[in-house]
Amino acid sequence: MKYNILAIILSVFFISACVGGGGISSNGEGIDFQFMTNQPPTDELNENQQFRVGINTINYGLENTEVNLCISDSLSSWVEGVTESCKIINMDKAEISGNQIVPFQKKVYFPFEDTTYRYINIEPNMDTTIVAEAYYKFITIANGQICIKRDIEAETPVECEVSSQEQLTSNSAPVKITSLEKKTYPIGNNKVQLTLKFTVSNSGAGDVIDVNTINSREAKEPKISVRVSLKGITTNFVCNPVRADGRFAFNEKQKTITCEAPIEITQSFIENPLEISVEYGYKLKKTIGPIKLIPKDEGF
Which residue among 90, 110, 124, 191 is the one 20 to 30 A from 62 at the CA level? Predict the structure, then answer.
């Protein structure tokens, strides 16, 4: 009866893990956006020509997400143009249809849907580049299955290695959790020290930022938060190299993290779901241009 219950639990976990990443395909990761067609015009703008900036914002994630969407241009206010401004956009979560993620999309207009920008005081050979940046918080969640045996020399009815490379499935996110290595060491009194080493990589098109700077856009050292849970057993993992505030500096494209916890085992072995989550801020930047600016005497 106990093994039947265990089989049911493992089946439920497998289905949940597939929904988290392995069995679901997506064309994007986290938050993305695109400039809408001719909003602004991409080739040229005449002096005093009215235009707006339209951005189609896309959420591939399975959680509602708040996005700080900002735009600016490469010129000074002397020519008016696109003044630096930001809007907080509430993005609903993506939906799952069959084995596909259907992203939520929202159209955003600057300055507003029914108002426009223009360039004045244009000089010959002048051009502009329009910049859009999206700042948001995201959580990457990776799931796996960990087997630990009480006596590392003993045989078990399932494959249960002392040291092994473990498989992970993950949600659609710009930061990935990969290369999970498990090692176990006996420490006596029916306890085993579990060591997990994994890699956190920024595989997206943007940059990891401090989650506390999403709205202020203040320049700070990028940091991530990591949480490890062996379901039904413990969440008390000690991870390194951690900072004093409990977070990890993330100045590179990838970082290797090691987490450890003592595990008490009263039976010959345990096989439990593992969840690793990484929380971070993310910035995605896109530009359009250079756009040629035409003075009055060269335009209409």
Answer: 110
| Long-range CB contacts (within 8 A, 24+) of 295-300 | 295/47, 295/122, 295/123, 295/124, 295/126, 296/46, 296/47, 296/48, 296/122, 298/124, 299/46, 299/47, 299/49, 300/46
Angle in degrees, CA 12, 198, 191, rounded to 5: 70
Q: Which of 257, 125, 108 is nearest to 180 (CA)?
A: 257
Q: Are 130 and 39 in contact (CB under 8 A)?
A: no
Instruction: With beta carbons less than 8 A apart as the criterion, state whether 262 and 150 touch.
Output: no
Every domain range in the chain assigned CATH 2.60.40.10: 31-137+284-298
Sign, CA dihedral 260-265-270-275, equals negative
Kindly report, residue by residue over 92-143, the tens digit of the pLDDT. Answer: 999 999 889 999 999 999 999 999 999 999 999 999 999 999 999 999 999 9
Q: What is the value of pTM for the model shown? A: 0.87
Output the six-digit token pair for 187: 């420490």
Both structure tokens of 94: 């993506």
Q: Are 126 and 50 in contact (CB under 8 A)?
A: no
